[in-house]
Specification:
A 6-stranded antiparallel beta sheet has the order 3-8-4-5-6-7. The chain has 6 helices and 8 strands, in the order H-H-H-E-E-H-H-E-E-E-E-E-H-E. The N terminus is likely disordered. The chain is of the alpha+beta class. Strand 1 and strand 2 form a beta hairpin. Helix 1 packs across helix 3 and helix 3 packs across helix 4.
C-alpha cells in the first residue's frame, strides 16, 4: 500500500488555519504546473562531468525544491526571513533549507555563496542554489533551482516569491554561478 503525505510548513498551523487550504491548493497547483521535480532533475550521474550525488542528496534536493514551490506567492520583504513577515532572497533560501532539509544557511546571498560548494551549470540538481549579480556586486541575489532550467526566488515587493527561467535574458546576463549544499 502506498501512502501519500502533504507536508505543510509548521508556520501554516495554528494562527494561519484560515490560509491552510489556500496554501495546500497553491502547493498542488505548483506541483502540477512544474511537474515532478525528481523526475525533471538530471540523473544522479552527470555524463558531461562524471560528478555523482548520493541518492540521499538527490532526494533531499527534491524535497528542498518541492518546499520552495510551496512558497510561491509569499510576499517579499527586504530583510525578511520568516513566513510571517515575508522573505528577501537569502531569507527565503534560509527558511527553505531549515524547514525542508534541516540545513542552516544564514547571512546574505554572498555569504551563502562562500559556504556552498561551486558546481557546473550542467550539474545542477533540484535544490541547488543559483546566484546572480542584480545589484552591481557579486552574488547579490540567490534562488533555489527546481529543475527544467527554473528557479524559485524572492524577486521583489511587486511580485514576491516566484519561479523564473535561468535563460530569461535578465537573469542569464546576471548569472554568476551555481552552488550545492546537499552534494555528498
Amino acid at each position: 500500500m502506498v501512502t501519500s503525505h502533504v507536508f505543510l510548513p509548521a508556520a501554516t498551523q495554528g494562527s494561519h488555519t484560515a490560509s491552510v487550504w489556500s496554501r495546500v491548493t497553491h502547493l498542488l497547483v505548483a506541483a502540477f504546473a512544474i511537474g515532478l521535480v525528481g523526475c525533471a532533475s538530471p540523473p544522479p550521474q552527470s555524463p558531461a562531468t562524471g560528478s555523482t550525488r548520493s541518492e540521499a542528496a538527490v532526494a533531499a534536493g527534491a524535497n528542498v525544491a518541492f518546499f520552495a514551490l510551496s512558497l510561491l506567492g509569499q510576499p517579499y520583504t527586504f530583510g525578511g526571513r520568516s513566513f510571517d513577515e515575508g522573505f528577501d532572497c537569502s531569507g527565503l533560501v534560509e527558511h527553505i533549507y531549515k524547514a525542508s532539509a534541516t540545513v542552516s544557511l544564514t547571512g546574505s546571498a554572498a555569504q551563502m555563496a562562500k559556504t556552498a560548494r561551486p558546481i557546473q551549470v550542467q550539474d545542477l540538481h533540484a535544490g541547488d542554489l543559483v546566484f546572480f549579480n542584480t545589484l552591481g556586486r557579486p552574488f547579490s541575489h540567490v534562488g533555489v533551482y527546481v529543475g527544467k532550467n527554473r528557479f524559485v526566488h524572492a524577486a521583489s515587493a511587486k511580485s514576491g516569491v516566484r519561479v523564473d527561467q535561468l535563460d530569461h535574458p535578465y537573469f542569464a546576463a546576471r548569472f554568476e554561478g551555481a552552488r550545492s549544499v546537499l552534494t555528498h
